[in-house]
Inverse folding.
């Protein structure tokens, strides 16, 4: 760990959840609760065509008949879907700002606090940012440069207006609205999110990035992200999340769909740092996210990397459907839970095509009174000749009040496919701690260093800009439970 | 007195390991402790470094005017105590550079010295590594991970030369080293030797002491020091073994 | 016929139906059946089977026949032929065999390790019609061999056996299941190990295609005791091996191993579950399966480590070889850990026979079939070599040869 990281660590420890401020902006909301009127309100606000409204209403009618999925190892009070605002936009945003001077300075300040430089000059070299503030996309940087390459990078709302053919063809094609209740809910009420289209043979020259942020109180955030990589293209997409401190639990039910056509590659990285609740387990985000990628074409590849440190509850299984022959799915995950956090996360690799390969590396760290579960499913269907999977899940326990659980489902229906699965659970190694401390590192530094080392296999998959932030987050997440 | 161990008795899991042990080390001195397996040599090294598994029954240790028992593991290290481990533990995923960098800065911080920046540290590490014949590529690997026994020992000496301790304890550093590696390691130690620092060398065999000349040699048997003297004792042990001391 | 009607109609022949407590418990169980309606989707332990075959049975009650033989042929060695789940009473200074008693039923019904949605265990409790209890008295070293025989077609046996191994005693228990008729056995073994005792439990299963065997074991280990179970499944009919172990006191150990050989349309469901409830305990769960033709298997393993169970060591391994395109294997190795000072791990591999190994052997002049057979044998070599009983080793080798003779 370099001195810079240590300094940051120190400054963070003085201000435990740094992102826990609230931006005071008047917002405009429909009435609380979910019904057809709410959906019509959202659709009207977003000036959507009728086919989109119909799509939403169909999803809503499916949702009404569904129950929440129950497989996860989680306990939380029943969610009252009628006590949530489903739309919240800063006032005056019906018309999108043309440039930064039209944006409320308070918003800019918010993003500066988050460390996202919105002004193009300040943008980290090579990072284009599509910022979602509550439900409305505020500003998109680097748009012009991307347009030259034919890359479409905009809010999903804009894509519905401008690229209806792509939306009609792909939206819901990987995660059907009726898949489960959270996907139906999202399909009915999603407000914003990102849309990416990479044309044939184009390698996107920069990391595309979106920062989501839940600001308004009692607002559910339901983004919808759709990324399409056409034949032979490549894109790396980053998603970061923070949310302010609130005593109430907030619901977040995002859907992310990825489609990789022949020879295309999508790399999707997430650093999730939603508000986790306080030391007594009060407040925090309920994060029920559905992420699924379809390797539709031959030789395509989808890679998920996630660092999950936030949220009171994380329910998330970024998955790959390996349909194209020779396609590859990867899942790299670090999940850290502290205090009363609960995480039930993992992946699903469904091998359909021949010669498909998947790799799963999962690192879980449990502290405090938290529960951390890896849940993963690897299945080889009849036609998945010569398919391969390698899975490694390791859990680390710090303290004896927490739990670490590993629940893999392994299903093979093909006799030429090979599945290998390894898992281990142990506590932090006392000899390693002793060694580090003998060299002069404090107990807390030593734990942080060893945990970062434990996670390295995953962290090194992140793009540089993210890797540093992720390392800091790992250290911050360990605070208060060591010693 | 630089290091003073007085009447030290220590037990672990109901077994008395050290029994009324006394040892004084002054600045600039090199002491060697020799003894058969199970005589308590490594226990002494670990008790000095502050390992928490031991129960101190009696006695006291003063180190640079501190009561050593008032300091925890890292505080002792920051005060200038270094233990070169007999079996250095592997720490996967943790790179040596940031690891040693934060170690040296923790020490500097305690000593109210200015911290060393990234660049100067990288330079320092490279030059010390090449002094010890350590390949630069090895600096990119995780701490001790996948190293051979000899590589691990060289790494310990590299860390020692970076942290520049006041008291270095070498716990069986010669075990598992071939003659070439032994030369490199002992050369490294000899280069570090000044009139202001001290060494405590723990070993079974005389061979190491042919390369690092001790000022004093102590024979440890069954948890206490039974004989002290000069280098001639080492030769005596080489010839007749530990039998006659038991 | 519906469960409740079936139960009410046959109540008079079901064990302990006069007992109020047991009656209340059974009513609860019926309730679970009625409400759950065999929701296959939410009960993965019901994978690959047609439940209808198991719940639409004709309940037949047979008056116990006194044909069970107990033979103290050598010292400390006993042979039992259990006919239709029954065994005559017997007593000497080392062991005691009696019928199953009300109190044994109650004792078990309070245990919550076997979840109450295990329909087969619930059926066993509801329709109980046979079973016995064997007590090994203190500080004895005993061998028991039990052959289980069913006399009539269309019989469904609901059998509950209790084994108690008292302080300092050890039991070598070999159970053989080799039924050839069209029948179903639903057996629940409840095994208690007192302090410093040990049980080596072997189950050899080799039934014909029309016999279904559902066997569930619940063992609990007190201080310094060890329970070792080895299952060898060569059955051509459906077999369900579900084995639960609870380590309730310090320094106890559970070792649950199994190998199964499936062919044709056969199905086997397997589960091992070890609950660590005290410190310094060890567990081992290893299952290996070989599947050919259209056979299907599932294996669930679970290591549960309670908060107090520090210094736990738990190991799981699940391995499967698929010899055919149409065979399938589902495995779910779970770790649930609530203590921090633990070392737990699991590994799982499923795949074909290693092609490189086959190539290597063929290049040495071996035929493909011979190479395959050798590699199958080597896959389970460790398990076969660990059988220290010569007679048993021979029996199992023979069965293996029979299975391998069908490999093409």
């Amino acid at each position: 760990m370099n001195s810079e990281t240590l300094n940051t660590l120190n400054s963070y420890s003085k201000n435990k959840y740094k992102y826990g401020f609230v931006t005071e902006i008047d917002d405009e909301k429909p009435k609380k609760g979910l019904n057809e009127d709410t959906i019509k309100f959202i659709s009207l606000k977003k000036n959507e065509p009728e086919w989109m409204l119909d799509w939403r209403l169909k999803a809503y009618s499916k949702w009404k008949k569904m129950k929440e999925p129950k497989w996860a190892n989680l306990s939380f009070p029943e969610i009252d879907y009628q006590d949530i605002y489903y739309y919240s936009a800063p006032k005056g945003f019906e018309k999108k700002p043309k440039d930064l001077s039209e944006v409320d300075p308070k918003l800019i300040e918010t993003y500066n606090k988050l460390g996202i430089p919105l002004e193009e000059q300040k943008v980290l070299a090579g990072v284009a940012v599509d910022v979602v503030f509550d439900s409305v996309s505020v500003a998109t940087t680097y748009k012009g440069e991307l347009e030259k390459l034919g890359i479409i990078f905009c809010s999903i709302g804009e894509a519905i207006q401008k690229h209806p053919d792509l939306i009609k063809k792909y939206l819901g094609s990987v995660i059907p609205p009726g898949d489960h209740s959270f996907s139906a809910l999202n399909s009915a009420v999603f407000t914003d999110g990102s849309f990416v289209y990479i044309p044939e043979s184009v390698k996107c020259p920069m990391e595309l990035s979106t920062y989501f942020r839940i600001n308004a109180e009692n607002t559910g955030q339901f983004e919808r992200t759709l990324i399409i990589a056409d034949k032979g293209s490549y894109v790396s997409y980053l998603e970061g999340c923070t949310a302010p401190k609130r005593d109430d639990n907030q619901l977040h039910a995002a859907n992310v769909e990825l489609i990789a056509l022949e020879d295309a590659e999508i790399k999707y990285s997430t650093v999730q740092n939603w508000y986790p609740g306080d030391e007594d387990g009060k407040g925090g985000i309920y994060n029920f996210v559905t992420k699924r990628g379809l390797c539709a074409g031959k030789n395509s590849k989808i890679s998920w990397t996630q660092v999950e440190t936030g949220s009171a509850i994380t329910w998330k299984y970024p998955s790959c459907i390996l349909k194209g022959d020779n396609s590859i799915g990867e899942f790299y995950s670090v999940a850290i839970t502290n205090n009363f956090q609960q995480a039930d996360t993992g992946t699903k690799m469904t091998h359909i095509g021949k010669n498909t390969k998947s790799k799963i590396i999962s690192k879980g760290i449990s502290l405090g009174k938290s529960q951390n579960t890896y849940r993963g499913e690897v299945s080889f269907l009849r036609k998945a000749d010569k398919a391969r999977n390698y899975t490694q899940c390791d859990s680390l326990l710090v303290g004896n009040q927490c739990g670490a659980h590993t629940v893999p489902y392994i299903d093979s229906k093909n006799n030429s496919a090979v599945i290998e699965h390894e898992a281990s659970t142990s506590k932090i190694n006392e000899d390693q701690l002793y060694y580090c401390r003998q060299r002069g590192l404090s107990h807390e530094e030593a734990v942080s260093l060893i945990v970062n080392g434990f996670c390295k296999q995953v962290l090194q998959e992140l793009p540089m800009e993210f890797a540093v932030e992720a390392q800091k987050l790992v250290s911050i997440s360990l605070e208060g439970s060591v010693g | 007195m630089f290091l003073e161990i007085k009447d030290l008795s220590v037990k672990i899991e109901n077994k008395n390991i050290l029994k009324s042990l006394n040892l004084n080390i002054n600045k600039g001195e090199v002491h060697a402790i020799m003894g058969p397996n199970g005589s308590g040599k490594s226990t002494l090294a670990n008790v000095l470094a502050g390992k928490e598994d031991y129960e101190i029954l009696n006695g006291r240790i003063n180190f640079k005017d501190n009561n050593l028992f008032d300091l925890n593991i890292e505080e002792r290290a920051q005060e200038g105590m270094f233990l070169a481990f007999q079996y250095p533990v592997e720490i996967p995923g943790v790179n040596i550079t940031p690891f040693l960098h934060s170690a040296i800065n923790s020490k500097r911080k305690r000593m109210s010295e200015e911290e060393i920046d990234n660049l100067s540290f990288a330079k320092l590490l490279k030059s010390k590594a090449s002094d010890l014949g350590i390949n630069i590529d090895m600096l990119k690997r995780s701490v001790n991970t996948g190293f051979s026994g000899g590589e691990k020992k060289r790494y310990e000496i590299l860390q020692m030369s970076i942290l520049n301790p006041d008291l270095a304890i070498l716990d069986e550093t010669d075990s598992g080293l071939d003659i070439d590696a032994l030369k490199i390691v002992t050369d490294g130690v000899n280069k570090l030797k000044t009139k202001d620092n001290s060494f405590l060398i723990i070993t079974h065999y005389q061979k190491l002491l042919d390369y690092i000349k001790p000022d004093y040699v102590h024979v440890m048997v069954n948890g206490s020091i039974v004989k002290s003297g000069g280098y001639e004792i080492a030769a005596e042990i080489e010839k007749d073994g530990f039998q006659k001391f038991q | 016929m519906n469960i409740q009607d079936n139960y009410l109609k046959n109540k008079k022949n079901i064990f302990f139906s006069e007992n109020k407590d047991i009656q209340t418990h059974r009513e609860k169980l019926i309730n679970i059946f009625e409400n759950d309606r065999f929701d296959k989707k939410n009960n993965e332990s019901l994978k690959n089977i047609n439940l209808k075959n198991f719940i639409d049975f004709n309940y037949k009650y047979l008056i116990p026949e006194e044909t069970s033989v107990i033979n103290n042929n050598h010292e400390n060695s006993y042979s039992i032929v259990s006919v239709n789940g029954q065994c005559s009473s017997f007593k000497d200074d080392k062991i005691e065999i009696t019928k199953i008693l009300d109190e044994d039923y109650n004792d078990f019904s309070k245990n919550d390790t076997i979840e109450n949605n295990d329909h087969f265990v619930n059926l066993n409790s509801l329709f109980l019609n046979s079973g016995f209890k064997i007590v090994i008295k203190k500080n004895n070293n005993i061998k028991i061999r039990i052959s289980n025989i069913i006399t009539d077609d269309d019989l469904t046996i609901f059998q509950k056996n209790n084994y108690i191994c008292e302080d300092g005693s050890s039991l070598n228990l070999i159970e053989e299941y080799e039924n050839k008729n069209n029948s179903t056995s639903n057996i629940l073994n409840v095994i208690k190990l007192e302090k410093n005792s040990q049980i080596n439990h072997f189950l050899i299963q080799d039934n014909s295609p029309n016999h279904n065997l559902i066997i569930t074991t619940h063992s609990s280990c007190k201080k310094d005791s060890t329970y070792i179970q080895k299952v060898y499944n060569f059955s051509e009919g459906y077999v369900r091996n579900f084995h639960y172990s609870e380590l309730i006191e310090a320094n106890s150990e559970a070792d649950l191993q199994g190998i199964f050989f499936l062919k044709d349309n056969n199905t086997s469901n397997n589960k091992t579950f070890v609950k660590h409830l005290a410190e310094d305990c060890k567990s081992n769960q290893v299952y290996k399966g070989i599947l050919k033709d259209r056979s299907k298997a599932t294996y669930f393993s679970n290591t549960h480590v309670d908060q107090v169970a520090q210094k736990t060591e738990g190991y799981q391994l699940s391995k499967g070889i698929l010899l055919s395109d149409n065979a399938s294997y589902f495995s779910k190795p779970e770790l649930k850990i609530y203590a921090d000072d633990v070392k737990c791990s699991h590994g799982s591999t499923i795949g074909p026979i290693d092609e490189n190994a086959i190539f290597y052997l063929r290049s040495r002049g071996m035929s493909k079939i011979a190479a395959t057979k050798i590699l199958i044998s080597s896959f389970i070599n460790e398990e076969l070599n660990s059988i220290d009983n010569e007679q048993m080793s021979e029996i199992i080798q023979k069965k293996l040869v029979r299975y391998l003779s069908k490999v093409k």
